[in-house]
Amino acid sequence: MRINFFLALSFFFVVLSCEKDIPFPEVSTPPVLVANALITPDSIWQINLSKSMPIDSSINFETVVTGTVTIENLTTNQLIQLAHRGNGIYSANSFLPEQGHMYQLSAQAPNFLTITATSAIPKAFSVQYLKGEKSFFKKEANYLLDLAIKDNEEEANFYLIEAQYLLENQNHSILENATVFSFDSNSSNESIVADHSNFKRSFLTDENFNGQNYTTQIGATSALLENLSPEDHLTAIISVKSITQDGYEYYKSLTRFENLEEGIFTEPLSVFSKIENGYGIFAGYTEQRLEIILQ
Q: FRET pair for 65, CA 20 to 30 Å: which of 23, 118, 192, 288?
């Protein structure tokens, strides 16, 4: 027993003596501009402009207030100049976004490369509520909601589905975002992370039902459903967005990042971006909203 002890102790000191510090090179990446904007028909132009920060920075982002931001309508050649309104927000209320038009975002600021991105707005679609039933999944209360989407056959469509619950009674009114899940075979949820039961939004493509009337189902979970009384009034508010593919991939990567299980062997993830010379999102969408009285 004593021999085994000394052998183990000797091995311990040998391991210590073999330790060597490995110098890692300091990575100094120049900051780039970051633009974030979603465009939809008849909305004002609004772009958030900031700059990227080092990975070890205690600041998540820093706004850029000295930028020049323009939108060019590539369909009509109109040029729209956005004005800085404060806190890195640039906006304009002229020549509002239209379906069927292609737009190019351009932003520049002193000491930064000019960034550009293009996007269009998907064509209109329709959605209808069919039925819903209360259920439990992973011991959490939810409603299973069936929705019928009339898909546009003239383009590939990428859908984001979100849900909220509005609880009202004599004492208060509470609006809460629900987490969603879907077991639809055409959903992209399962490809994002293994546990896709608590997403902020559900993902659906029309690859297998282009141009058809399609029924999908989502589950919408919320703590508001746990202790409902007969006097409570409950409304589900469903948002269905048809978004460009770039926007779809951006939100998929963001969802993957938000649901990443951290660990020492976790592979670093980056959020999808099609901004040239920078980061962020510039994407168009159309939206349909449903208010469903459940109780």
A: 118
- Which of 100-114, 117-131, 185-199, 249-263 is predicted with the least confidence, judged by mean pLDDT? 249-263
- State the CATH number of the domain containing residue 39: 2.60.40
- On whether both 111 and 167 belong to a single domain, the answer is no
Whether residue 201 lies inside any domain: the answer is yes
User: Is 21 inside any structural domain?
Assistant: no
> For residue 164, is it within any domain?
yes
- pLDDT tens across 160-210, in order? 999 999 999 888 899 999 999 999 999 999 999 888 888 999 999 999 999
* pLDDT computed for residue 55 by the predictor: 63
List the domain range (segments joined by +) for residue 171. 126-260+285-293
Chain segment 21-61, per-residue pLDDT in tens: 434 444 567 899 999 999 999 899 999 999 998 765 655 67
pLDDT at 8 over 90: no
Contacts for 147 with CB less than 8 Å, ≥ 6 apart: 127, 128, 129, 130, 161, 215, 216, 217, 218, 238, 240, 290
Q: In the chain, how many domains are there?
A: 2
